[in-house]
Amino acid sequence: MSAESIAPVPRILTKEDLEQFQASETYNVLLEFILDLREAATGHPNSYECSISNTTLGVLSLLDSIEEIINRHPPVENAQSRFGNPAFRDFYDDVENQLGSHLLDSKIKNIPHLSAVDLQTYILHSFGNRTRIDYGSGHELNFICFLLCLYRLDLVQKEDFSALVLKVFNRYIALMRILQSTYWLEPAGSHGVWGLDDYHFLPFLFGAAQLSKHKYLRPRSIHDDDVLEMYAKDYMYLGAIAFINSAKTASLRWSSPMLDDISGVKQWSKVSEGMVKMYKTEVLGKVPIMQHFLFGRILPIDELPSEKADAVHGVEATEHEGHIHGEGIWGDCCGIKVPSSIAASQMVHEGQLRSVPAGAVRPIPFD
């Protein structure tokens, strides 16, 4: 494989590396893209009629094809474990093989040859970690990077942004919930249950923007079951709450205390602004999460401080060398295995567990 076709790789290892990334063009482009997507979703339900380009249709078709791959790999018998189902690895390998066999090119036209490997890498890594059978906000970010690459390659335009959020990203979240429920993906890190959600962040960031101009719905509406039933399909934030309620046996106060606290805010616009600040600090600003961020041809970075130090000492860095497992953070890291709350809920429903085991839901929010 030539140097030009090398797949994106993680390069952030230290706080100094992260600080250089935060001052880079790639960071600014990524953050601006997320904010532009948020703006494109503001005030609009998922059913909003927006322009849908051929590329957008292609991405939706790609996600449909990946859902079909799930059907080819049913979970294996794993009744006594609430951890990830090993059949996920077969699904993951199948997706990787299909992407390498022109699935991507067949769905999305006019991909530059040298850019295909970047797109394949970001979309593949957006479904979770094959080895650990887990998923977290870093994997979710990979999907945003996939969409950003399409934008930087001029395969989508700004007029496509509403569709990218309301149709494409929303479809991706629906697909991830199928994956999480089918293979009992573990939360990627030991602290996700203390924060917003075991797996996702951006449905709340985009979802709060969707609701920010609603005449009647308020943040406290998340506690109204009738509201959730009526509006969960139209608004990502409410859809996420409904999914949490279906997957957790404890109340929102105990399973997602931060979401419960946020429901006391009077205006969705305040929630929306708070979500942006929180995302910049707790996701884009944390080494244990961003050490997994992938840099390639489309989303590059200059030589980082840790790489300069390695060069001086003649050290060749390898993936996860100097790997950091943070404490007291929201987000994902690969240090401690956390059982799937979805698995626990399903096992209770099927009578395999009499109640949720102690520790399955933590009632303490992160600081």
Structure notes:
The protein has 367 residues and is mainly alpha-helical. It has a domain at 3-189 and 283-349. Helices cover 51% and strands 2% of the residues. It is built from 16 helices and 4 strands. It has helices at residues 15-22, 25-41, 54-71, 87-107, 116-125, 137-152, 161-183, 202-211, 225-231, 236-247, 252-255, 257-262, 268-282, 287-290, 305-312, 341-349, and strands at residues 9-10, 134-135, 186-187, 294-295. A two-stranded antiparallel ribbon has the order 1-4. The radius of gyration is 20 Å and the shape is globular. The relative contact order is 0.18. Mean pLDDT is 86; it is low at 190-194, 317-321, 327-332 and 353-367.
Main sheet: strand order: 1-4
Low-confidence blocks of residues: 190-194, 317-321, 327-332, 353-367
Approximately what portion of the residues adopt beta-strand conformation? under 5%
Backbone structural class = mainly alpha
The ordered string of helix (H) and strand (E) elements is EHHHHHEHHEHHHHHHHEHH
Number of strands: 4
Which radius of gyration do the C-alpha atoms yield? 20 Å
Number of distinct helices: 16
Q: Can you give me a brief rundown of this structure?
A:
With 367 residues, this protein is an all-alpha fold.
